[in-house]
Amino acid sequence: MPQEKDLTQGNLLSTLLFFALPFIAANFLQALYGAADLIIVGKFCNSNVVSAVATGSQLLQTLIFFITGLTVSATVLIGKAFGARQYDNIVKIINTMSICFIIAAIIMSLFVILFANPILNALQTPQEAFNDTFDYVLVCAFGLIFIFGYNAISAILRGLGNSVAPMFFVAIACFVNIFLDILLVGKYSMGAKGAAVATVISQAISVIIGILYLRHGNFVFKFQFRNIKFDIQTAKELFKIGLPLSLQDTLIPLSFLFIFSLANSMGVAASAAYGSVIRLNAFMMLPAGSFAMALTALTAQNLGAGNVKRAVLALKLSILFAFMFGFIFFIWQQFYPRSAIAIFTTDEEVLKAGSLYLKTFSFDYLLVPFVFCLNGFFFGCGRTIFAALNAICSAFLIRVPVAFILCSFISGATLFELGIAAPSASVLTTTSAVLYLVYLSKTNKLTVR
Predict the structure, then answer these.
(1) Residue 1 is assigned to a structural domain of this protein
(2) pTM score, two decimals?
């Protein structure tokens, strides 16, 4: 497979599509990876365990978003250096990132282990599902270092224009996870704990394969893992770009965790339904998210090479393709929402609750192509502070208040009302992002910072 790819040359349409398609495949497999736990648990266990895995995995996903926020900074800096042909700088970035992420992984694992109980209480985890949820979270906490590792390796390769190798890494992890889920949850009846063990082992295998690929791949420069050196200036750049993203990617899921707590307060059926929709959304949102991720690396390389017009055109094409997918998903959920929830469960109450939520939430499928792709472009520019503030403000000024007001002041509120919150926030995010893009364009500030 190709080791690196220059995204600053060639036909832009074909470059974007061939670079983005492995992202779509990888993100689909990543979503399948997460959904497998819920599908298999739903098949072999009761709704209490389904609720436990749904709640625990949502908390874990919040931590993963924090990790990916940090790793995007590596993609941006490596893409910029690769576009400018500064190969020695790439090695320095990788070395510094490795040290920073190992430390961060240890700190995060200890935090989850120490505070899992109060966090789950704050999420209003149903009492019937609390012990299973605690077991799931605790086991996954020990595997956070592997999640850091996979995302770091993927960030390096994507900055180099290689979106194919990360796809293979996650494919291997996905199939190992499914096999272990069936074995541990199905055959040995380990429930939520078995699903967590399967997740950790599969991630570990993926990281090992990724390290071997980096070590023995035929790159234009040599990776040296023996004498890793820490560069303070590079670390500052990584955190300058990455911390706003990590803050955003942590706080935004926290807003959804707050909404999850509202769903939990409606009972086990609503909790399981909301958790199932979250898994479904991992698939529904992945085209927009994939084009956004591809756009980040493509923008970084092209702006590093001084090619602004190509980067802007890539943004427009990404929004177009992502919106096409979003429109299809919107139509599906408006007319056949039960068919989507039925992938995860056959429980009638869960099907009813999930369908109500999708009726209103599905409007977000029309908006996220703009939100994700504009953010992906800003990430590639290194303008992560604006992107983070924009997303955080829309979440906590619109999404959370709307969810709270609708569920608190409407008697007998259901997931139908809860679903209005997300698209409401996306309207503000999109409007602000478009205005900021116009400002950058008119003031000639479309460069990598």
Answers:
(1) no
(2) 0.73
CB 340 within 8 A of CB 358: yes
pLDDT score of 344 more than 90: no
Per-residue pLDDT, averaged over 383-389, amounts to 87
Give a yes or no: residue 402 inside a domain: yes
d(CA 316, CA 13): 11
Structure confidence at residue 225 as a pLDDT band (50, 70, 90): low
* Helix (H) or strand (E) run with residue 230 in it: none
pLDDT, mean over the chain: 84
| Both tokens assigned to 254 | 């926290």
Q: Which candidate, 249, 233, 188, 243, places its Cα nearest to that of 40? A: 188
Of 141-145, 345-349, 374-378, the one with minimum mean pLDDT is 345-349
Fill in the amino acid letter for 210: G
Which of 99-108, 159-168, 200-209, 215-224 is predicted least confidently? 215-224
- More confident of the two residues 379 and 30: 379
DSSP state of 399: I
Q: Is residue 291 part of a domain?
A: yes
N-terminal to C-terminal alpha carbon distance within the chain: 31
Q: Contact at 8 Å (CB) between 277 and 52?
A: no
d(CA 285, CA 365): 7
CA dist., res. 196 & res. 181, Å (int): 9
Alpha carbon dihedral 147, 32, 137, 415, in 10-degree steps, equals: 130
Q: How many domains does the chain have?
A: 1
Distances (CA, A) of 96 to 85, 130, 268: 19, 39, 45
Full domain range(s) for residue 415: 12-442
Query: Is residue 447 a part of any domain in this protein?
Result: no
Residue 140: count of CB within 10 angstroms of its CB: 25
